[in-house]
Design a protein that fits this description.
Pfam families: CDP-OH_P_transf (PF01066). Keywords: Membrane, Transferase, Transmembrane, Transmembrane helix. GO terms for molecular function: phosphotransferase activity, for other substituted phosphate groups. Belongs to the CDP-alcohol phosphatidyltransferase class-I family. The protein is an all-alpha fold. It has one domain (7-242). 76% of the residues lie in helices and 0% in strands. It is built from 10 helices and no strands. It has helices at residues 7-39, 46-70, 77-92, 94-99, 105-117, 120-128, 133-157, 166-180, 192-207, 215-242.
Length: 245
């Protein structure tokens, strides 16, 4: 008979017990980071920051539920903690939107901090042996939400029209199409191109937050970034189409 204190069942039990405490600790760190951003000048009133903080707490609870079902490791590691911190920054950027203070230098600075952390989580996952499909998906969904929030800032806080929202909705458009076309749900091979285009997309959206880029220059940057994103999706869709059988 297998020793109940050892083996896969014991390991899974320890994982389920340990993950909630680790997520709570990481979420508290994220909330502290949100307060630092608030005190650092990211605009928003108390009610808006309360909504953003509540959204982050709800997101942390969702992540915990997903990790308990699909995460294969017994500790979240620095990699997922960094991704959760990036998610906290994204939630923090919702507060100025709700308060009617879209775009600007402070939003760009906070977004730049989140972009700087992008890639750190993947490096930490590889270094600590905590690479997982869950971690990759978590990172991708935070990137998608980040792009959408930044696109909303550009739309509401600059002279660019609602077409800039396409930069934040591209990923969600693909997901909606996949809900109707099962062949789009097939796994894609890893490609550095996707990460590069994502970084360029976010960097362009951050640049568009500032008053430095206005008029024609802002329009050219927005459309160039959108063209790169569309081309990247087109390459993946073509790959999936050719292998749909």
């Amino acid at each position: 008979m297998q020793d109940p204190d050892h083996g896969p069942f014991a390991q899974r039990s320890r994982q389920v017990v340990g993950l909630p405490a680790q997520i709570v600790a990481s979420a508290l760190g994220g909330l502290v980071g949100m307060q630092v951003l608030r005190l650092g000048g990211v605009p928003g009133m108390a009610a808006e920051w309360a909504v953003a903080s509540a959204g982050f707490v709800a997101l942390s609870a969702l992540i915990l539920g997903q990790m308990r079902r699909a995460y294969p490791h017994a500790r979240i590691g620095g990699c997922n903690a960094v991704t959760l911190l990036r998610a906290a920054i994204v939630c923090a950027l919702i507060a100025p939107l709700l308060a009617g203070h879209a775009a600007g230098w402070t939003v760009a600075a906070a977004a730049l901090a989140a972009l700087a952390l992008d890639g750190v989580d993947g490096w930490l996952a590889r270094r600590s042996g905590l690479v997982s499909d869950f971690g990759a998906r978590f990172d991708m969904e935070v990137d998608a939400a980040f792009a959408l929030v930044l696109a909303l800032h550009v739309w509401l806080g600059t002279a660019l029209g609602p077409q800039v929202l396409l930069l934040g909705l591209a990923r969600y458009g693909f997901v909606a199409a996949a809900a109707l076309l099962p062949w789009l749900r097939a796994p894609l091979p890893q490609r550095f191109r996707r990460k590069l285009i994502c970084v360029l997309q976010i960097a362009a959206l951050i640049g568009l937050q500032t008053p430095v880029l206005t008029g024609g220059a802002a329009m050219v940057l927005a459309w160039a970034a959108l063209a790169a994103v569309i081309c990247s999706f087109a390459v993946d869709i073509r790959w999936l189409w050719r292998r749909r059988a």
